[in-house]
Design a protein that fits this description.
It is built from 6 helices and 11 strands. By secondary structure, the chain is an alpha+beta fold. It folds into 2 domains: about 130 residues, no CATH class; about 100 residues, SH3 type barrels. It has a 5-stranded antiparallel beta sheet, with no helix packed on it. A two-stranded parallel ribbon has the order 1-2. A two-stranded antiparallel sheet has the order 3-4. α3 links the parallel β1 and β2. α2 packs parallel to α3 and α4 packs across α6. It is flat and about 90 Å long. The mean pLDDT is about 85.
Length: about 270
Amino acid sequence: MAKRAELRRSRRARRIDRTKPFAERNHREKRFNNRRQNKIPPSVLSNRQMELRVLNEMSLILPIAKICDEDCGGNTARNGRGISPVTVGQEWFRSQANRIAPVSLLESFKTWTYRMYLKLEKHSEDKSKQTIQTHGNDAIAISSTAFLAYVPFCRGKNHGHELRGVCQVTPAPFIVVTRPKLFRRKLHQEQYSKGGILKRQGGTITPFGFRSGDYLETTRKGQSIRGWIGGFTDSQKTKSISVYDHNWSRIGQFNPKNIRLLSRSSRLCLAV
């Protein structure tokens, strides 16, 4: 908050013409009333856009006949329409995904039924673990609804619901898809230093012919290392490039001369 206030003061100081009377100065006015617009928070929107992009890439490889999405039950007339930013983003995602294939909803409590029928484990204690038991088995259970049906039955005095159909789960690679945590240059930073010079901060272009997010290969102590470019240092004493893994944790800094470019930035990081 202190940094935001500092940047705001510097922006206003550059904009206001203090030679004019107070009533004629160019003060900042409100641009819109954000209480009346149905807007999605940027963090929720970026996550949904990434899911939509992965879905679009999959549609180019595999024919998609139907998309099944788990309904959390938050965006209802009883709970209130648009009560949560997550449900608003979910509705936006469904409207966009419906252009690729019809979207069907599955109630959240039924996911457990399908998962137990397929004998799939779920580890929900630590969501940071990148395993199929934590993040993948629910999706497999939801996709099995194309082959299984939850139908009622009545046998004598017994009645209820049961799953009918055949669905065989086979092993498959578990791939982690993330985004490189890049940020563009700041248009308004702190106060200028002497000579009107602003400190470099952000940006995706490096002076070594690479861009942030490029996939590369380098070596360290005879060991091959692959990762993504996340920053650089260009001074009289040091010239290096920072390499990050798919979790965007820095592996280390390496000499640009010892780096081999594998692919340009696709704004996605994949790890098997």
